[in-house]
Input
Amino acid sequence: MADDERTAPQRVERVADTWLPTDHGTFRMTAYRDDRGTDHVALSQGVSDDDGPDADPPLVRIHSECLTGDALGSRRCDCGEQLQASLHLLGRTGRGVVIYVRDHEGRAIGLGEKLRAYALQDRGADTVDANLALGHPADARTYAHCAAMLLDLGVDRVRLLSSNPAKQIALRALGIQVSERIPIVVPHRDENAAYLATKRTRMGHDRTAPPEWEELLAGRVPATGVLAQRYGDLAQGEGPLVVAQLGQSLDGFIATRTGDATFVTGELDREHLHRLRALVDAVVVGGATVACDDPRLTVRAVTGRHPTRVVLDPRGVTPRTASVLTDGAAPTLWVVGPEVEAGAPGDHVDVVRWPTDGPMDPRAVVDLLAARDLRRVLVEGGGRLVSAFVRAEVVHRLYLTTAPVLIGDGVPGLRVEGQDRLTDALRPPARRYQLGEDVVTELELTPRPATCSTLAADVPDAS
Output
């Protein structure tokens, strides 16, 4: 047995059990002390000593301490993002464990030595050669105490969240059954490209990420990955499901006072919008939006199926030359008031006569679409239409993107009913993430259908 194996911690003692509310939900937090006196923690949800042999193995992440990545947000590695992604996935699935392992800094060479290794990397060494040059192994981590913590929690079978096959081998040797190893997929950055390449080429880490978007389009949700985090629960279930999307300025406008809306938000937000379109059955806009912007309402920025286009047009303001009526790229429902003269301009257009004048009731619109088997609906614009659906309490999830621009006056974006007291204001569960210069705030407005998982009650993070 090698010296490092003889001196590695083998046993643990449970020293505390409490609860930790986080941005990703509330976790049971269990502290352990190993036989060298080092404290470690396990963050868990939904695991119990009472789990029977037929219970599905939980997601488990063995996360090595990384002060620079976890606490300081370093971009030299991907550790902090992997930790946040793991906690987010546990919060979404409600079942799993993150073991946070102390004394694993720099693959267990210590913080000061890791920074010395950084200095060597600044001069051209990779992470493996830097450790070796300082007289350390390429990877000095051991996992016996991690296995002991899992067994103490009643977990002996896991779905391992890791791109590192060595962790899987180590846990299996320690009596933990690894039914599946699921790569952690986080965004690569210019600053960590060489670091990640070294992990793949010299340390055997997974070389490629799974085809995440294609899996989502097929209704299968990968356990990890940015897209899975953002859209995974939208990809599953048949509905009913109503989501809404709106992009607006910081001061709450979707266009200038002349109607110019090209473009309030950036290219990444438009890609986000096309992903939403690809995951629903129908996309709904108002006739005034079609008259002003002539949107195509198809999926072009990503791969995916075009949704059915639905134009709510009680006054018949949609131009007969509008793309949705003429291009034939996707089926189109043109819903018009009882007095509007509207012949179908193409075979792809189905004219639906609304029975009454005036604004169309959002709940009745959702029922109309459900009767046509369009049960997963995206309400896209404009501001008055999205606001009406939100006020009618039919929107399950709202994606509100704000761009760092001040318009000053123009076409209003989201507007909800006013309140006399701030304590009565709407404060739905939310999470935020950045798309270029824009910020998406994802709001859970009403209880979701049972087939779709919900956001945690606290605010999950940003990837």
Notes: Residues 79-93 form the longest helix (15 residues). The CA atoms of residues 65 and 102 lie 5 Å apart.
